[in-house]
Amino acid sequence: MIVYYDDGLFKFRNFGVTTRTEEEIEVNELNINKELTLNNHTMPISNFPEPFVTCCFTNDDLAFISLFLN
Considering its fold, how many domains does the chain have in total? Predict the structure, then answer.
């Protein structure tokens, strides 16, 4: 899994062992902004090396996502 920040949108993407098309990836990708009703006004901070969103597995089927919204 990976979480990332793209032009104001926080997104979550999972991975498996099979190759997927772009359409399949997009359907399965989670738009965190939409789920948490966040706007897309967050902008990167110059010379700030820390990520705006991170994730980790808490067990085999549960993920923890942490994000910074300024």
Answer: 1
